[in-house]
């Protein structure tokens, strides 16, 4: 152990730790979950510290040699090279002041280490006076929250959703000629093609990707420059604008200074809105995953319209059993996401006065959801959707057995007559065609045209009958 000092006095710190006394106090104060803040958040904090140092240098507030040192170490943090030196628990001070000081201390101590000086010397850089110049935890942590979450959505979630949308669209094309029975209320309905059904799933995935892109734009306003309570005390007036410009150049995303710094620090409504988008995405993915596993149920006693890829044995006791494990995995991730996003909503609701003090928990929930959703979506696309096959014979069998083909007879014999035909067919086990011909309700050729399931899948192929599901 070595001894370092902060404003509260001396503190023993592990010899190999790049952090200092303030961080060690937090490690001792918050032994709660054993989970530090997400790596993506820490990396985002590195990018923010880099931008702040460069802005201070541009403004003539920080000497070039100090700025260069801060940027060098901040780049290491942004590259994930110093993650081991960020040990503080998620459940800590709600402003994450401890994590901001963690970064300040790591940057100062790493600079000393690079120069061959003792760690903790504070001779090259002071954690507060130099690394934290023009900043407060109260604006830097909300800024890091926005930057890091935006980057995670942009680089992880959007590509995964695009991949799924593409995979589903390929299947829509592949299955375009497979006629199957539709279902509403879990009951037989009129026919459609399996391709049409999958085109709906592909559209859901495309919309999910667009919602993810919208989430990135929701995070564009940054709190940097507000310092303690939003007034910008101890901060140069041009500092926030320069930081946002540098962050935009570094990340390729369009960040800007908050229009109102009191809102940007006192509220977390933008993060709550992002939580709403992630919840919607999770709901879409759940619908797709559930439909696919139900369509693949069987293989003999279920619907069996799809053949799902076999990825692993499904039972320790039933030989040959294969389960829809990829759908089950994705649904569980989506359920997890809904719970995490509800937490984010409650966190946003419980901000008080000039600062929301649930920032570490919000960071954990948002990053955890994005990480899990992105990975689960990618795996589902690769190990389930890409390998789906249609059971054409089974699809046609269920179409031929369905009574809802009778819907196409409405324009020819009327709703009441059609209903009577359907009821008799169900009761007797006879076909719709047999009963219609027996009752002499239609000529055979016209009846065959009306009952053609392929024609029913084409827009405007028949005149619409009475409404209802």
TrEMBL record:
Main EC class the enzyme belongs to: lyase
Site (Important for catalytic activity): 328
SUPFAM superfamilies: L-aspartase-like (SSF48557)
A GO CC term attached to the entry: cytoplasm
Database matches in PROSITE patterns: FUMARATE_LYASES
Source superkingdom: Bacteria
Domain annotation Fumarase C C-terminal: ranges: 405-458
Protein localization: Cytoplasm
Chain's role: Involved in the TCA cycle. Catalyzes the stereospecific interconversion of fumarate to L-malate.
Subunit structure: Homotetramer.
UniProt protein name: Fumarate hydratase class II
Species whose genome carries this gene: Opitutus terrae (strain DSM 11246 / JCM 15787 / PB90-1)
């Amino acid at each position: 152990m070595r001894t370092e000092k902060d404003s509260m006095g001396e503190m023993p710190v592990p010899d190999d730790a790049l952090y200092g006394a303030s961080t060690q106090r937090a490690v001792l104060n918050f032994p709660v979950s054993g989970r530090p803040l997400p790596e993506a958040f820490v990396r985002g904090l590195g990018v923010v510290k880099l931008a702040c140092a460069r802005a201070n240098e541009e403004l003539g507030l920080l000497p070039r040699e100090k700025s260069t040192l801060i940027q060098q170490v901040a780049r290491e943090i942004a590259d994930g090279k110093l993650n081991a030196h960020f040990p503080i628990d998620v459940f800590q001070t709600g402003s994450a002041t401890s994590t901001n000081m963690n970064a300040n201390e790591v940057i100062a101590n790493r600079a000393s280490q690079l120069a061959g000086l003792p760690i903790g010397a504070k001779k090259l850089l002071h954690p507060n006076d130099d690394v934290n110049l023009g900043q407060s935890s109260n604006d830097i942590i909300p800024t890091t929250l926005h930057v890091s979450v935006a980057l995670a959505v942009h680089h992880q979630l959007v590509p995964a959703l695009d991949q799924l949308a593409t995979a589903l669209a390929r299947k829509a094309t592949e299955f375009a000629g497979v006629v199957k029975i539709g279902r509403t209320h879990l009951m037989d309905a009129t026919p459609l093609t399996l391709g049409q059904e999958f085109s709906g799933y592909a559209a859901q995935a495309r919309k999910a990707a667009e919602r993810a892109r919208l989430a990135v734009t929701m995070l564009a306003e940054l709190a940097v420059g507000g310092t303690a309570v939003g007034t910008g005390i101890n901060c140069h007036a041009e500092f926030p604008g320069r930081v946002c410009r540098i962050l935009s150049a570094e990340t390729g995303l369009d960040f800007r200074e908050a229009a109102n710094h009191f809102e940007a620090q006192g509220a977390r409504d933008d993060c709550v809105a992002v939580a709403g988008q992630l919840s919607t995405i999770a709901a879409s993915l759940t619908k797709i995953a559930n439909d696919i596993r139900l369509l693949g149920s069987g293989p003999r006693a279920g619907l069996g319209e799809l053949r799902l890829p076999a990825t692993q044995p499904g039972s320790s006791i039933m030989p040959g059993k294969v389960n829809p494990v990829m759908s089950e995995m994705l649904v569980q991730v989506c359920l997890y996401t809904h719970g995490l996003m509800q937490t984010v909503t409650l966190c946003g609701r419980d901000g008080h006065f000039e600062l929301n003090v649930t920032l570490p928990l919000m960071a954990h929930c948002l990053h955890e959801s994005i990480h899990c959703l992105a990975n689960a979506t990618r795996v589902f696309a690769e190990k389930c959707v890409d390998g789906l096959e249609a059971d054409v014979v089974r699809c046609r069998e269920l179409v031929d057995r369905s009574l809802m083909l009778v819907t196409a007879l409405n324009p020819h014999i009327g709703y009441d007559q059609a209903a009577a035909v359907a009821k008799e067919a169900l009761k007797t086990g006879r076909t719709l065609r047999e009963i219609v011909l027996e009752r002499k309700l239609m000529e055979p050729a016209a009846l065959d045209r009306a009952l053609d399931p392929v024609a029913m899948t084409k827009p405007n192929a028949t005149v619409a009958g009475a409404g209802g599901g």
